[in-house]
Amino acid sequence: MPQIFRRSANTLAKLSIVVGGVAAVSVVGLLYAVQVSPYVTEVRVVKDQPIPFSHEHHVGGLGLDCRYCHHTVEKTASATVPPVATCYNCHKIVWGDAPMLKPVRDAYKNDTPIEWNRVHDLPDFAYFNHSAHVNKGVGCMSCHGRVDKMPMMWKEKTLYMGFCLDCHRNPEPNLRPVEAMTDMEWEPSEEWKETDKFAHLGIKKTKPGHINQLTNCAVCHR
Amino acid sequence: MNETKLWKSLEEKAAITAGGAPKADSHDRFNPFSNDFLSRREFLEWSGGMAAVLGAAGCTRQPNEKMIPYTKAPERVIPGKPLFYASAMSLGGGSLGLLVESHMGRPTKIEGNPEHPTSMGATDPFAQASVMGMYDPDRSKVLIQNGQVTFWGNFSTQIAALMAMHRAKKGQGLRILTENVISPSLGAAIGELLKTMPEAAWHQYEPINRDNEIDGLKQAFGKSVTPWYDLKAAKVLVSFDSDLFGDLSGVRYSRDFAEGRAIATGKKDLNRFYALESQPTVTGSIADHRMPARVGDIESMAAALAQKLGLGVSGKPELNPEQRKWVDAIAEDVQANKGQSLFIAGRWQSPAVHSIAHALNASLGNTGKTVRYLPTIEIRADKNSDSIKSLVSAMGSDQVETLVILGGNPVFDAPADLGFVNALEKVKTRIHSGLYLDETGSKCQWHIPEAHYLESWSDLRAHNGVSTIVQPTIAPLYGGKTHLEVIAAIAGKGDKSSYDLVREYWKSQLGGDFETNWRKAVQDGVVEKSAGGGESVAVQGAANWKWTPNTGELDIQFRPDASVWDGRFANNGWLQETPRPLTKLTWDNAAVMSPNTATKYGLKNEMLVDLQVGEDKVRVPVWIQPGHCADAVTLHLGYGRRMAGRIGNQVGVDVYPLRPSTATWLRPGATIKATGSTYALACTQSHQNMEGREIVRHATLATFLGNPTFAQHHEHLPKNVQGLDVGTAGGEYAPKAEADYQWGMVVNLGSCTGCNACVVACQAENNIPIVGKTEVTRGREMNWLRIDRYYEGDGENPVAHHQPVACVHCETAPCEVVCPVGATVHDNEGLNNMVYNRCVGTKYCSNNCPYKVRHFNFFEYSDMTTPQLKLGRNPDVTVRSRGVMEKCTYCVQRISAARIEAKSENRKIRDGEVKTACQTACPTQSIVFGDISDPNSQVSKLKEASLNYSLLGELNTKPRTTYLAKVSNPNPKLEAKQPEQGAHHE
User: Fold this and answer.
1) Which of B261, B730, B738, B757 shows the greatest Cβ crowding within 10 Å of its Cβ?
2) Residue A74 covered by a domain
3) ipTM attached to this prediction
4) How far apart, in whole angstroms, are the C-alpha atoms of residue B634 and residue B618?
5) Which CATH code for domain B143-209+380-524?
6) Rounded to whole angstroms, how far apart are CA atoms A136 and A130?
7) How far apart are the CA of B881 and the nearest CA of chain A, in angstroms?
């Protein structure tokens, strides 16, 4: 009986192991790449908005404090998108006739709210609370990035559970004095580096290896 | 274990008596693989297919969401922080003061108003469910004229013309029909209208009325007053068939009663409660002595007691030896407690019994101490049956041209013999204002949607005379109008809003600086100094009082329903699905009777019977109820609605056709006949059976004083696991010291009446869906908190125990170790967390839970599409979809809110700062929650009490919810019928 396979088939068979392995790894890698790509995570993806509002201009340029508009950030779960009235406070006069701001004037006069496209969107089963973070030394920048350099708003971090947990397991690197909460250019001073940040902010420190209140499921999920 | 066995159903009792083990029937009722469902193979095929489809569906990106801020933000509204507004709800001529929780203008939850005398911070199930009632998508949404949609302006112009005609005739031909009005401003508006049109007339009718009480008071004192009881001052209470705790103002009364038996906090001289009852109620279930007796027998006993205590009541009551013994014992007890006893007659007892009760209170010096008499709560106290009778006869003789019906549903619930519908059709112009386009609304040319109390400005009186300003928390969802606005339109005041009308009224009432006083009244929920003085009363002519003993073989008793009341809450799914306090039936009414009566007529549960008196007949399923009196059948009102809405239509049987004006509460001379067919009832009674273990522990006061630790010697545990030594070193969970708080709960079984307020409160707080009757029969009800009801002793008159059971948050939780995906895990504060987003629905946890407190979403029970229902949900709690397990979280959203607030103020959470939804709703304060690592917290102190015990503690689950054993205070002279449980054994 003649041989079915030629001798070169051995090489091909060996090669197929390698090629198959590479292919499998690439498929998994590709899927992973898609999963962490901005297509899925929407990190640094700019969304269209009814008005091209620039944080870069208002925060970086004019130096408005975050809390001028997001005024409930220290009081409650939601930082709050400001009501049109807040825009209109200034833009009644400043750029009062600008065609770009017509939607603001219309909204104010007709009492019809502006519908913004949500950039930071947590799943509905996760209950994030702004006040709990900013009152305990986590600055705006830690999650939102350099808002003062964003002409249009984008998401700086994935805001996935892993991102949250990294900090909930080890909050220290993200802690800053409460006074510097909205400061976009804050750098830790030597004195701050030396401070017991937990004691300063009144956070209970747990022993390593123990379950920490911040990693209790019900802290975010309920 | 000793010989006493508790039983939950008569089937179980029979099994115990026969010596067998009680049958477990929680999960074997429904077999998904039976013939009417998929075959096993098909099921697997579908499962595989669905898994693939759902897997693919999971790969989509999150959809874009909009953010819609206010244009001009309202003052004081902070998104995420609820505001609480004082208000009040009326029901059947009584009112309950409330605080309404509002999230950005949407009322989501009701709490009691601690400042209000009828509430004291607690609520009843009706108030809890009223949020659902407001968002009900079946409420009427448009103004209707002759079947055509029209608008308010059209109505007010046409009514103005009509009223001009009536006014010319001094109001002749105009009639107004309302429910019992307890709103001062509405009463004043109607009074004023009648002044300008003296020939017009105002009628009041409600099927559940206090006619007998009014008659009894008139008989006793010669005038109309409202009694207000002070149960705190009463040492001995005697109820003649009164459902004191389940009825109006029951919230306050049960609170005061519970304070009289606060044994866990050291009180030793407990009050004593004798209840004579024609059918089991929550009131009787907490009494020290309870006797089921026919209505006529209770009358005889009341008369005998009056004679024994020296009142000149005529006649010779015939009593059996047992009844005689009771009368003697009660007489002796109340004489020893003069000025500290109290007699209360139920609204279904005859006027004679009411007058006897009042006269007894007077002769024993209780008046002014345990009972005070106040001006009537109604603006005008009418005997409802007379009032509707005179209206029907006027309509029948063509004297009525225009009838304005404000609220109520007389077409459905007017006395059957009057022929209300036929008479109504003779009226030329019929105007109806109500929440629903119901049976009555559809028979009227005009229908005006009514504003719900959560949408209205109004005012209400409470039983002790205090007034409350009702303020809205949302603009009328469906453009409803208040009764006050309708009356204003009729009175020719144009389109005044009820805000202006209510203010106008109170301007004349509140002295001093009106704006300041008004703001204070609205904010407090109580108008200062509005209570008014007491009325002086004197008993007259006891010798002429007529009492009537029983006649006939079989009585039919009509009673308000614990869920739908007179039928008005029929479309409220939360209430429909709440198991009725003692029958544990959902979604139906039934012919409720005692086991002996059922045997006498050869009847079994769920058999359909024809109940007949004369020509009137209804067909009802039988429900056998231990503790019901013999030779009587109780029918609950309010079912069989025809135009209630998608939830309430055709639920149960309409028994109003059997209820003539001559027999409001009792219809003797009935016959009962089995039809041969059956009807399935959805009962939660034997679901989740605890298999005959001794789980409710109780003793008499005497036993307790002799053996204070009786509750703690039922199971024998190794020393190291006994008690609540939480966080044993080296244990699985973080040691206690690591966390700031350790949460725990205590439930006092000694004061729980089983009223259901906690059950509905939990439903409202935690977005718990309803599942419908079919799913309840399959054991799939979703209520996180259930009230287990156990019986003990004789089937004709057993002792009832109530035990609220939700997740007990075991420290060594059996559910956690079997979850393959870590969806239920412990946190370091002792909570057993349920993580919905991890749950894959294996249901292993539920199988391994000894308390059966986990509930699985077999389908998407929550309505995710109806927009109104979305508005009413608690935004702080996830709305669960299908395929996940859920259970009590100890209201973790409330803990989180308190924690965040405390942290930002750099302090610890104070004791009492976190109150669970069930705790705040509880009228008797039977539920206490808090930090058990703080030895000074209220919950820690209660856990130190010797009455404290763990449910199924022998399993070493170390539950964080523990129970306080029940201690009753029976009269030693009356042979204790309840078996003793307290004896210690080794």
Assistant:
1) B757
2) yes
3) 0.89
4) 13
5) 3.40.50.740
6) 10
7) 11
